[in-house]
Amino acid sequence: MENLELLNNITAVDDDPFFLQFIEDKFGEIGIESIGQYACPQQGLDYLCRGSSINDIVLVDLQMPKIDGIAFLKFLGDMRYQGQVIVISGFESKVLQMAESIAKQHDLAILGQLTKPFSTTQLVGLVDKATARIMSNKAVGNPLAEAVFDAETFEISKETFYPVIQPKVEMGNEHIVGYEILSRLKSFDGTIIYPNQFIHLFENNGRITEFNKVLFDCSFEKMADYKDVNFSINLSMKDLTSHEFVNEIDGLLKKYGLEPNRLTIELTESCIVDNLLIAQEITTRLRLLGCSVSIDDYGTGYSTMKQLTEFPFQELKVDRQYIADCHINTENQAIIKSVVEMAHALGMTVIAEGVETKQELAFVKEAGIEVVQGYYYSKPYVWA
User: 201-215 pLDDT, tens per residue?
Assistant: First the structure.
């Protein structure tokens, strides 16, 4: 065990005092002597709402009186808890998997799941994962933002845009075939602000178009310094309401002298479902420009196979919730294999997001996925 000093507040919430002691004993075995214990879920929430950072961990039992684990996770999401989450239960693995999925949909940093009773080895694996995430944030100079972020007054400019990139690696030869541009903002006091803290706010207050103009302008300017390198950028669903977006992309490509085939625009599955006709129009226009188009986070929305055939996608990105522990999760294995078969039948390249372990890598390779992205090869790093 390394880097345990990076961990701040570790909190366990479980209505069983005996199991709370069990959790504390397990942490003691790995060198962490004291953790916060709450048998009352409400008291646990009251404590956690005082403030949090990525250096914190909370362990949440799913079966508790008055406030069960699912409601607890929702409250954590509503309060924008910034720590990392472990879900615990004596129920079957399917229930734990559903709880983990729900936590992710509430924008919680889920570490994984533990079945009662768990082993010291299982706990070590999750704690190592937690410290690795903290080190990743430190490596790019990213202390998680704790300051209040005002989406109405924050200055969106080249000075406050703070992009990081993560490579995409081809499975066959392990060569980098491109990079995804991941958006961050940086306040003038040095605080880093992450997408889950500002994208939804900008979408709601109408500033997402303003942000995307800076995102694309800054990104294209940097792309001009990298000859023959491909990049991908996520498009907010709010920009699917205007065809002017395509004209702006065309203008920026010409302004910086970029070949359109070096750019991939990633659309989330929810974009397609919510704006079917206009999404078809815009994706087709992007293809006519010469750009590539990708469906991102596949499996998190409700698109059908029929809808996929109605879009000019060149690639499909399998969401990380299906990649996590795919080497041991038979349901995820079935989903991944069926998605790969469908995508290949439709002529699309498949990318696996969030590959973190050698075992996950081995499975996605065996399943026929061509490109991977994730911590196994590289964490996101500052785009210099």
Answer: 888 888 988 999 999
